[in-house]
Design brief:
rod-shaped; mainly alpha; 80% helix
């Protein structure tokens, strides 16, 4: 089994991915296309970091399974161990794709109901102690910008847009809290999946070690 104690994601791949993102921005391609590429790059890096972060003791046990009792390397056993480690990588890809789907879905909903370019102004207004939240929004022109955005992107009447606007200013702490809860939940989901994958890998390594020991002992006795 090959040794990979360090992060093995090719540095050239990172530079290539960065260049691709720069090209996408320069070409004026869709925000969602750029986001998709960025997410895939981020997932690839995170998965490789977690896969290479398998505890050294567990890696040593898996590596030991690749050798027969007489010290010779078994290609069949090596392939099985590599496949087992590869399953950790596959499982993490699956869980990160689920998390990415949840995140991009939430972002799509937010972007369809509120212009993301105004988020910074809203957060600044919320931290402004000089007056009320709504007053701070008006000083920053958020009300007018949101109204113009809503007129361009929806067919609602002016009165409906104003009602929608008032509803957003009242419920934004709930939306923020819900977003944070989803973020924490996704982190917990990744942690659970990673620890589960490590437990499964450890159980498989231990079972194969016992299997190989019995097989080698049988050959010596025969």
């Amino acid at each position: 089994m090959s040794q990979h104690n360090r992060f093995s994601f090719p540095l050239a791949g990172i530079f290539l991915a960065t260049a691709m993102c720069a090209l996408f921005f320069a070409s004026g391609l869709s925000f969602w296309l750029v986001l998709l590429v960025t997410i895939l790059i981020a997932i690839c890096v995170c998965v490789e970091l977690l896969t290479q972060g398998i505890p050294a003791k567990l890696r040593d046990l898996s590596r030991a399974n690749c050798f027969r009792m007489d010290g010779t390397l078994s290609s069949r056993r090596s392939a099985r161990e590599q496949k087992a480690v590869g399953k950790v990588r596959t499982d993490m890809w699956a869980i990160f794709l689920i998390v990415a789907f949840i995140g991009t879905g939430g972002l799509f909903v937010l972007q369809s109901t509120f212009p993301m370019t105004l988020v910074d102004d809203v957060v600044s207004a919320a931290r402004d102690d000089s007056g009320g939240f709504k007053l701070a929004l008006k000083k920053r022109g958020v009300d007018d910008q949101f109204f113009r955005w809503a007129r361009r992107t929806s067919r609602s009447s002016n009165a409906e847009i104003r009602e929608w606007q008032q509803w957003l200013w009242v419920t934004w702490p709930v939306v923020l809290g819900l977003s944070f809860s989803v973020f924490v939940g996704c982190l917990a989901l990744v942690r659970f999946a990673y620890l589960r994958a490590l437990r499964d890998l450890h159980a498989g390594v231990a079972a194969r070690s016992k299997e190989y020991l019995n097989l080698d002992m049988g050959r010596l006795q025969g």
